[in-house]
Amino acid sequence: MAFFLLAGLLGMGWENPPPTNVVFILADDLGWAEVGCFGQRKIPTPHIDRLAREGMRLTRHYSGAPVCAPSRCVLMTGKHLGHAEVRGNLQAKTRFPQFTEGQLPLSEQATTLAMTFRANGYKTGAFGKWGLGPVGSSGDPNKKGFDRFFGYNCQAVAHSYYPEFLWDNDQQVLLNPKPVPGHRKQAEGEVRQEQYLGKTYAPDRILTEALRFLDDNRQNKFFLYLPFIEPHVAMHPPKEWVDRFPAEWDSAPYRGERGYLPHPRPRAAYAAMIAHLDDQVGKVMDKLERLGLKENTLVVFTSDNGATHRSGNGFVGGADPEFFQSTANLRGFKGSVYEGGIRVPTIVRLPSGIQPGSASDQPGYFADWYPTLCEATGIPMGVTPDGQSLWPGLTGKNSKAERKPMVWVFPEYGGQVAVNLGRYKMVRTGLKTKQPGSWELYDLEADPEEKTNLASQKPEILARARAILNEQTSANPTFPVPVPAE
Which residue pairs from 381-390 have beta carbons closer than 8 angstroms and sit at least 24 positions apart in sequence? Predict the structure, then answer.
């Protein structure tokens, strides 16, 4: 049973008109506590914090998966990882050698949220990182409901913030005649930031195109999807943003030994990317206000998974989630089905229907956004998603509704599964290794850090969760996860 902190909402009802437009902002690898309104103390995020003051924080909201592509698949299709077509980060060329970039595509049969919006008269745009099929494939964003796509089609290309080109629908747009690769090591010598900077910072160009989409469609109903790429490593933000943070944070450079690019001031660079992301959120909100669209536009802000994970004696790409307390002591990071890998900062704003400055601890996840956004805008879904609408709770109509169990079946990082029953969560890891882990069960209300395994003490709850996992997992030969009977 979920319990809400919804002061003043009980009187709200359907006398408020539904929102006309939707803006969905998706950060990349942004940890649970990496913004101020979710506990961050070192990195200022005034625009995201303002969004929280004007809307509702969802304090127990989860991503669709612990990594990029499958999380986006769950978001776009409303199918959880037990049913999703894409359950891991797999390059398209491993199954379709004709493609040189991009990830495994969604099938022709897959219906996306954008397709549903477009079928109901909405103008649709996506600006940022796609990751669900190369240009020309069945998963091409233009074939999956978007009138306009501008950005990175391929997640691997998005490791560089100064790529050679970005995609404008099916056309390549030259960005940096001298691109900066996303991976390099520098074992010796002075690490200079300038040698890893290009001409045009891709996030800035992507934002410019997104704001133009708002200008062009201010008279239309629109669904704007903004899968921004920050703060995913590599770390090479513009120097002026790095210089905003204390020099004493960094006593040694990062030399690329744990992947991605070297940087002379890795902590400052990571903070700069989050600060720049925050600035982009502010510019989107400012544009909505200037166009007179702020009152009737539903805005969602969240992240595709948790903060960057460990590698050897540090973190991938030179990030330092421990320094920034990126998970606020939640267990795990990106790539893990523990809380730190999938619980993500989430904010929903709509002045006409959502109480400003409120918070909700109703559990929810990415599979819920398909039905939620359809109910919010009053359009028919046309599909049967695995998630359920959060809209009644967001608007105060039903603040203690029971919810469906939430399911993750993740083939990567050793093979992992999880089932969230609201208060209790079942986990099993190492399923594709020689020594699979045992069943684990946690009471998230009493033990959000997942320290005490209750599997042996509450066998009936464990049995229920295991039954749900079996019922809710369909075969997927491309992304198999062997689940032991015992």
Answer: 381/78, 381/116, 382/111, 382/116, 382/119, 383/77, 383/78, 383/111, 383/116, 385/77, 385/78, 385/79, 386/78, 386/79, 386/80, 386/82, 386/83, 386/472, 387/78, 387/80, 390/58, 390/362, 390/364
